[in-house]
Amino acid sequence: MHEIPIRSFAVSVVVLRPAGSTFEVLLLKRTGTLAGTWCQVAGAIEANETAWQAGLREVEEETGLRPDRFYSADICEQFYEADRNAISLLPVFVGFAAKGATVRLNAEHSAFRWVSFDEALRMVPFAGQRKVLKHIRDEFVDNEPNPWLLIQETAPVGSAG
What we know:
Layout: E1 6-7, E2 10-19, E3 22-30, E4 38-39, E5 41-44, H1 51-63, E6 69-81, E7 86-96, E8 109-115, H2 117-123, H3 127-141
Helix pairs in contact: 2-3
């Protein structure tokens, strides 16, 4: 018998901003792996970094944004990678950006768009992303976020803590 390894080495962050009585989702157009596809913020967890610290760092690196509030989304994005014959499991976080926050992309992306949840669901290429977006809309937009999921920073991003 051969087992398929499960890898958990990266994080996924859905960034939201106020738009009238609801919220918009930030999507980024990739330039490297999966070039041309729209996605949320994602990236690897570095040494001596917690998953939530990696999430905050990746948001800042990829978008220049610093969320006002940051939550565990209480869900993981999962997918099978055929080239590695492995299942990847990424903890998901939700960051709330200010209404007028300015996005500054790094080289990993060629464009960004703030879109409605319905539009985001049409734009992302994978079923796992759509599942995550539906969960976040239900738990963080249509309902008040669970206060136990709020992450209170106790150490600077990237510090060993």
